[in-house]
Design a protein that fits this description.
By secondary structure, the protein is an alpha/beta fold. The chain folds into 2 domains: about 1-25 and about 60-245 and about 420-435, 3-Layer(aba) Sandwich (Rossmann fold), CATH 3.40.50.2000; about 255-415, Glycogen Phosphorylase B (Rossmann fold). It is about 50% helix and about 15% strand. The chain has 15 helices and 13 strands. It has helices at about 1-35, 55-60, 85-100, 115-125, 135-145, 155-170, 185-195, 195-215, 225-235, 270-290, 325-330, 350-355, 385-395, 400-415, 420-435; strands at about 70-75, 105-110, 130, 150-155, 175-180, 220, 240, 260-265, 295-300, 315-320, 335-340, 360, 380. The strands form 2 sheets. Strands 3-2-1-4-5-6-7 form a 7-stranded parallel β-sheet, with helices on both faces. α12 (about 350-355) packs across α14 (about 400-415). The chain starts with a helix and ends with a helix. Mean pLDDT is about 85; it is low at about 40-50.
Length: about 450
């Protein structure tokens, strides 16, 4: 009983803190909309990525490496929908890898919303979906009889709730925190951009919570070498592994002959996307339209239209909302845009553009930790005039377009493939073996 009381108390504290962060970042309206809306389930079709490799092919890629299969539990708020966001696509592909390695993988969601479509898709790849709608997730975990070798928890606020419960119920399980991105880094950068004292206070509170969760973890996953260095500077004793985004490459069918069609992808629920779209519409696109009036800007993502409802927009701006399959636009557009002025982690939109051979223009923040070189893999622009100039340059320079299209795909192949994720996963479970042998 005391374990469950502690779990529910920590859940309430985490929700209050996250509400405070959203209030300072996005205002009362966004907070009320979040509180009163149900979790979003928007996709019932495969994601707009390459056709998934057969699980047998993944197993052939990985199984020659020595693995020690075990039962794993992954705790997340919602089941991953690869078409919804980059984090979901990453988790879905990591689940596929863990199954191919021979682990028995269970996914538990803290939301009480049942999701039969995505539950079925996870079962198809060999993942066991835990149903806790009747009992609640904490009570299920307290009473379950599976001896989990490891428990993976997504994001610090869930780790605050779950690690004490895991330590009490299953003390031998390896506790793994998947940060997805370092939240406090993103929030501190937004506070700096806004020059907001209240946002900085909230971000510093997030930092304390996040670092405490990392200290409670046996192993922490981050998505880039940059975030690895940040954490090792803060917590030198922490066991940190880099497990970044995971993508499969479709055939290179993108064509520069498709016209001056520009693409931005990202849901408005993520503050860097909402800010980036407004900056794109108010300061960058007017400069582009003045020189290339035939340009079209395609905006794809849930809620993006609300970011521009008070702005006068020319006819060349096209809102698509959420799309189940981005493949058509990724093939028909000729430039991908990532005008993000703050954020953390690795940007899935850039991976997605590049996987399809779509040359990309991005801010320095957007390419952080992605092993990208200006002028060779990507064009980097830090302010609105430079960003607009980069778009015009890429539209006019065929050789540069071809170079970025090819090198961008090579970047995904080298750093964000299925195989590139394997060493970090193996190191994670080697840590468990060393711990148990002590």
């Amino acid at each position: 009983m005391l374990r469950l009381l502690r779990y529910h108390l920590q859940t309430a504290i985490s929700r209050l803190h996250r509400a405070r962060v959203m209030l300072h970042s996005r205002g009362w309206r966004a907070l009320l909309a979040r509180v009163t809306s149900a979790p979003t389930t928007v996709s019932s079709t495969p994601p707009s990525a390459a056709k998934p490799q057969p699980e047998q092919k993944i197993a052939e890629l990985i199984m020659p490496r020595a693995m020690h299969p075990m039962s794993l539990l992954w705790v997340e708020e919602q089941l991953p929908d690869p078409a919804r966001d980059s984090g979901s696509l990453r988790m879905f592909n990591l689940l596929r890898l863990l199954v191919a390695m021979g682990h028995s993988v269970h996914v538990l969601t803290t939301s009480r919303i049942d999701d039969p479509v995505h539950r079925h898709r996870l079962r198809e790849i060999g993942v066991h979906c835990v149903s806790t709608v009747a009992k609640g997730p904490a009570r299920w975990f307290e009473r379950q009889e599976i001896s989990f070798g490891a428990v993976i928890v997504s994001r610090y606020h869930l780790a605050q709730q779950w690690f004490p419960l895991v330590r009490s119920v299953n003390p031998d399980a390896l506790r793994i925190l998947d940060t997805v991105d370092l939240h406090h880094v993103r929030e501190l950068r937004e506070a700096t951009l806004r020059d907001s004292v209240l946002m900085r206070l909230a971000a510093n509170a997030t930092r304390r919570h996040e670092l405490h969760a990392i200290q409670e973890a046996d192993v922490t996953w981050v998505v880039s070498d940059v975030e690895h260095r940040i954490l090792k500077g803060e917590l030198p004793e922490a066991q940190v592994e880099v497990i970044s985004n995971v993508h499969e490459l479709p055939p290179p069918v993108n064509s520069r002959e498709s016209g001056a069609h520009l693409l931005f992808v990202g849901g408005a629920h993520h503050p860097p996307n909402a800010d980036g779209v407004r900056w794109l519409l108010t300061e960058i696109m007017p400069r582009i339209f003045a020189r290339r009036p035939e340009c079209k800007l395609h905006l794809v993502g849930l809620g993006l239209e609300s970011c521009a409802k008070d702005l006068p927009l020319p006819p060349g701006i096209i809102f698509h909302g959420h799309l189940h399959d981005l493949g058509g636009l990724l093939r028909s557009c000729c430039v991908g845009l990532a005008p993000l002025r703050f954020g953390a982690g690795v940007k899935g939109k850039i991976n997605q553009y590049m996987a399809f051979g779509l040359p990309t223009i991005a801010t320095p923040n957007a390419i952080e930790g992605m092993h990208l070189r200006h002028g060779q893999d990507v064009l980097v622009a830090g302010d609105a005039p430079d960003f607009a100039d980069a778009v015009i340059r890429l539209l006019d320079d065929r050789h540069l377009w071809d170079t970025l299209a090819y090198q961008g795909r090579e970047n995904v192949r080298r750093h964000f493939s299925m195989e590139s994720a394997v060493p970090g996963i193996q190191a994670t479970f080697m840590h468990q073996r060393r711990t148990r042998l002590r």
